[in-house]
Amino acid sequence: MKHLLKLYDLSAQELTDILNLADQLKYDKKNGLTHHYLKGKTLGMIFQKSSTRTRVSFEAGMYQLGGNALFLSSNDLQIGRGEPVQDTARVLSRYLDGIMIRTFAQQEVEDFAKFGSIPIINGLTDFCHPCQVLADLMTIRERKGYLKGLKLCYIGDGNNMANSLIVGGIKSGMSVAVACPADYKPDSALMQWAHANGSFVCTQDPLAAAAGADVVYTDVWASMGQEKEAALRMKAFEGFCVDDKVMNQAHPDAMVQHCLPAHRGEEITNEVFEAHADEIFDEAENRLHVQKAVMVKLMGGSAE
Ligand code: CP
Ligand code: NVA
Fold this sequence. Notes:
By secondary structure, the chain is α/β, with parallel strands linked by helices. The chain has 12 helices and 9 strands.
């Protein structure tokens, strides 16, 4: 594994290895054991969109591993004034040991990997959010003890989260059910792949998708960059809220996951959110541990 551009690129074994290392790093941290695996190394973090969790967890994680992280807002980089990705990638590769990038087009992240010579980590694109889903899988496995055979249900927009959950869920041996409005389905090639490689359904009926689910997942109806569509989307997603009715269909011990930020009263009710807040904030915490594992795997260094 040279980069983390999308979960589709990882083997099931690579995925499990990341989760195992993340569990170990979390356990060690709780027991006061530090690992300066990335001493002297620098991660550049390019943000073309806002972030709370991704920025802070990568920065803190890098610090905990003995390295440094640079926050690079695209407004301040020459890339924001049109310097091509192929040049930016080659320049930054001469200074840094890894780059985390959050942007719009998946192609931009792929181009960074193509033209640069250091590991590239996708910190969210319009197409996918692999770091988030690694943290989700870590949290589900932590609470349920295993992933294979569990039913993961996603209700809402067929967006970057849906795309990554489908791939991460299927690669982990989960059965995946997605409920979204007809005009807001996940990526069609990914859905085809999911049908061919595991148990997958995409329906317009949230209650059917939630039936017997072990994990119920949702995300905002208007993602970053879609703010102007918010009113239209609010209408289109009517009936796709994770509420008590949905939870009553799920397994009685079902977990709720949300990548955050959450819009209570839209994709999830305040009641469901607060009843499952522990699980949701464990999920947010696990971004830190799982991304540390990804950085150690990609940016090397195994000795103190
Ligand atoms: N879940 C997530 O990626 O959060 P941020 O947008 O705050 O980074
Ligand atoms: N789908 C959301 C996820 C945020 C973490 C967005 O792209 O804005």
